[in-house]
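Problem: given the chain below (97 residues), write out its structure.
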Amino acid sequence: MFQCKTALSKHFDQAFFWLSFCLTAFFVILVYYPSLLHAPRGDQIPYLAEVAGKKSWWDLAVMSYDLNRFRIFAPGDEILFRPVLYFILGSERFLFG
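Solution.
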């Protein structure tokens, strides 16, 4: 009797795991589906417009880490703080022009 209950419990745990996984995947796809149809340019175009006159790596990658808080072109994202994104964008802009 004890082994049967353990096997049933294990089967229930596996079924619950897969059900929760499928529901989570469904809701993630449902929420992010509209963004899959757009090009990934939401942050890059305002960034490129803002740093158009900067040429050194220090100005592009290191000094632009808090660009959302102080940018002039397309403001409105003051709450977002993404230093790694702007470091990568600045390094790519410096390396590839």
